[in-house]
Amino acid sequence: MRILYIIFINIFFYFQVSGQKTYWQQQISYDIDVDFNHQNHQFNLTEKITYYNNSPDNLNKVFFHLYYNAFQPGSMMDVRSRTIADPDSRVLDRIQKLNKDEIGFQKINSVVDGNNKNLIFNEQGTILEVILDKPLNPGKKLKLTLSCRSQIPLQIRRTGRYNKENVAYSMTQWYPKMCEYDDEGWHSNPYIGREFHGVWGDFDVTINIDSSFVLGGTGIIQNPNEIGYGYENEKFKTKKYYGNKLKWHFKAEKVHDFAWAGDPFFIHEKTNLDNGTVLHFLHKDDSLNNNWKLLQPYAKKCFEYMNKNYGEYPYKQYSIIQGGDGGMEYPMCTLITAEGSLKGLISVTVHESIHSWFQGILGTNESKYEWMDEGFCSYAQYEVLNYLYDKNLLNPLLRQYKSYYRLANSEFQEPLSTHSDFYNLNYVYGVNAYSKGSVFLNQLGYIIGSEKLKSGMKKYFNQWKFKHPTPTDFKKVMEYESNLELDWYFEQFIETVNTVDYSIFSVTEIGNKTKILIQRIGRVPMPLDISVTSSNSKITWYNIPLRIMRGSKEKDIIGENFKVISPWPWVYNFYEFIIDFPLKEVQKIEIDASTRMADINRINNIWNGKTNESELPKIIFKSKL
Length: 625
Hints:
By secondary structure, the protein is of the alpha+beta class. It starts with a helix and ends with a strand.
């Protein structure tokens, strides 16, 4: 025993000294019981939690989110919306104008620990701090029971009652939710309008609500025959008696949030994927255009495409629900507004359901790395739409590139590493999260090759599902998959506002050969694909890797004649190489004909036959073919 103890101490000391870290994450289980009063839009809630401290730290306190408290005049969300230069049009000054019976609140009545002792707690806006009676040591669990009374606000942002499409209840961010604790410490950020981060765990939720309401959301209904409304697995008809309550019992395992919606006039339809997963559709009457029925085969194809190309969706159901204020993702469900075109409904459904992979299952901290969720979802969204509509576009993200270029050529840029709450403008956050984030991923495919990106995305999903991956975790997967070093790309494109800009500086004839001189204008170095089209329309591709990559990509989607030439040491602003064509046989030369490299000025990427009269630079790196 003494020897084993010494071995353990030595191993522990080695990892401490060498700086090696073992991944860990916290775990929680919720048992929530809700008594819902739709007449005053309030509910009483009892929440029992078991919280597992898998960290190496002693915890003297814990924190919870109380999101409803944001919907009160003077809240941080309210003030932020009234002071930022470009407020969200859905919020503006609407919170400030809420009456007492229209605001949201979560009033904590008590917090009791497993020893039946009342704990001291402190509410500060949207954060609840609970002081523990004794430290929660590593490897131990904490039992708490919270009792609170809540009022559902008028629908303004994501959550609330009676949205613009008159859906009764969009129940998101509705319960006291444990803040995440990881190797960076507590993430007890106040809620001012951005997105979310949560502890992985299990939910057992019982909602007692008037029998006229039809519900859908996260989890699997445990009493379908009592509920009816299309959930039953045998013939059963729910009797609607006003004033009587139904008990909706949901369970969800391995999720980091729980959301639901309810309305007396929801129509419930469903379809099955080939693997048995059930897609539920809950919506108001749309008999005038029948869009919700027409949506169903597109949703099915989207899920099956994602299962095949990104990794298997692991849950037994997913619910697509009319509600909220646009489109918002939650584990096993989404809430979307739907009174528009069929194409718009398909697009938002595709985007929000793809969040099931990049947020629902890969639980990245959206507050810090929103681009890893929204950007990756946007990338996959347009890939899926390209497939659904059989467009066969080489680069389906051209609109996202144009959006990024507008920002990159403006004075408003902020790096992707900016915390989402601290962007100076909502506009910049939106472009960074969605457009630049998707460009980042598409451009990564340009760097390492489309097939390596595709296989790397599946490995990333399978390796990091049900965890909290960071940019470094994603980088390591892609480095391993491509056998290339990618630090430079992540550092430049995420942590700075530097941009990519290359030009064909000059093309000159040398005997029966042609010399091409490329200039790097932007600060971000990139490997280059240069296509040379001869007079007989034959295309030869020259790939110039960066020396810092320590290798080059394999042949990409760009064609048969693919030649890798000398790697470019990025400190040289000019790179010269010679091709075995006389100038008279060269019809066209282009940098990145695939348009995947985010070059902010593509005009100078194509040689048009004109001679550059500028003086040649003195320092040039000369390639050896």
